Amino acid sequence: MAEETPNRLIDSPGEKDATYDHVIKYTGLFGGVQGITMLVSVVRNKVVSELLGPSGMALINLFHNAVKLLSQSTDFGLSFSAVKHVAELSDCGTEAEIQNLVRTVRTWCLFAGLLGMLLALALCRTLSLWTFETEDYTWDFALLSLSVCLLTIQGGEMAILKGLKKLKKVALVSVFGALATFVLSAPIYYFWRMDGVVCSLVLCSIVMLAIHLHYSGKVIPWRVSLFSPTVYSQGLPMVRLGIGFIIAGIFGQGAEYVIRTLILHFGDLNDVGLYTSGYTLAVSYSNLIFVAFEADYFPRLSAAQHDRKRMNRAVNQQMEVGVLLVAPMLAFFVLAMPVLVPLLFSAKFVDAVPMAICATFYVFFRAFTLPASYLALAKGDSRMYMLTELVYDIFIALAIPYAFKFWGLSGAGWALSLAGLLDMVFIHVIYAIKYHFRLDASRLKIYLLQLLCFSVAVFAALQTDWWMKAVAAAAMLASVTISVVALKDRTHLIANLKKKLWRK
């Protein structure tokens, strides 16, 4: 990617349709960044699992989800809605107009962050009772109120960088943020073990905000007008769009909170830790590739949303690339899961392997769901986005805990995969009616072949016979072959790799 010039607020590229090479290029850029982030996360989880065990993993996760829930409940959806507004203005506005909008975003984020911190302080005793059925963690939640504020401000800075298409800086923030939080948290867990969890979370949120401000401040210096009625009125369109996103965020974090709390009720803290590790393996690590999509895809879809053909082309391209990249990766994961769990966590987490394998269908279906789900946000239809998220979150909040109650961790994994399938069908049907979205029928053959290969890999990997592992490996190789052939036909990726290898 070209070096950014200081006298321009926008790096990019206008209104042209993206080619498959463009999609692959930016997926590769952010995929590489997310790969580094994942590697750091893997090492961090390994350290935490060895030092704190499943109970420590569960404690970190419960605190982290509470912070995210409070932040998303009070940030007015600005971490997402601001991207759309800044991106649209960056294509046609003057530098003065862009700077004014950025100041508005920052003012609203500071206000929202302070509001979230006050709410967290008011609810700290209640959160302790709801989560742990004791008041012993009240002061821990009180200290974490600062993290709620900082996370909201951090989200605004990232939205500004994405909206201005400063993709190199977005990448650097992600990499240095992951490295800094690991370097900071590892010694704390080593010396203070469980007693250092809250301290680590608060200090990491301070460091993460400092990194965000460093890079966003280089683009536009940090200024706010906290007591200006004009600035608040200018930000109302962003807030209106963000209302659906914020409510959807509350639903999502609330569902995760309910799931873990009910698993704690039906089981114990160890079960929550195993569920969290299984979810991390099956979903969180795999989702890194979807995060790689978002930085380039959402601004591009926002620009195309007034033209039905361009809109459908953009969604179908992103969907196809997603399936071609995700399916082989998931097939490898299910085959390697028994080795990965002791390696990435510890032998104490082996019981999470069947759950993680059963849950991987969720990620496969998400490759079809996520590109389409951005349509409501690109069109500014927050109500529709909120509706689809609500239906999904209600289902998982009920299905996963009760599947765990009757069928254990594997049942929870299958419930998550079923949720992914139903969510995909629901969104495609609703958006076909609402936005005239059409799935490209010419791509169905590849999708069905990848689904077949992946299904064989999953069901073979769940068996104990050695020859079934060979079947899973064959299915994985077939999935890789399908993706390589398809990418060769649609992009110059394979040809470019051959050229580089030939030169060497």
What labels would you give this structure?
16 helices, 84% helix, disordered N terminus, mainly alpha, 504 residues
State the gist of this model.
With 504 residues, this protein is mainly alpha-helical. It has one domain. The chain has 16 helices and no strands.
Tell me what you see in this structure:
By secondary structure, this protein is mostly helical. The chain has one domain. It is 84% helix and 0% strand. The protein has helices spanning 20-74, 78-92, 95-132, 138-163, 167-192, 197-219, 229-234, 236-266, 269-284, 288-304, 308-344, 353-378, 382-435, 444-461, 466-490, 493-503. Helix 3 (95-132) packs antiparallel against helix 4. It is globular, with a radius of gyration of 22 Å. The protein starts with 19 loop residues before the first helix and ends with a helix. The model is unreliable at 1-17 (pLDDT under 50).
List strands and helices in order, with pairings.
Blueprint: H1 20-74, H2 78-92, H3 95-132, H4 138-163, H5 167-192, H6 197-219, H7 229-234, H8 236-266, H9 269-284, H10 288-304, H11 308-344, H12 353-378, H13 382-435, H14 444-461, H15 466-490, H16 493-503
Number of helices: 16
Number of strands: 0
Strand content: under 5%
Radius of gyration: 22 Å
- Cα distance, first to last residue? 22 Å
Mean pLDDT figure: 83
**Biggest beta sheet summary:** none
Structural class: mainly alpha
Helix residue percentage? over 70%
The run of helices and strands is HHHHHHHHHHHHHHHH
**Which regions are unreliable across 5 or more consecutive residues at pLDDT < 50?**
1-17
The number of distinct structural domains comes to: 1
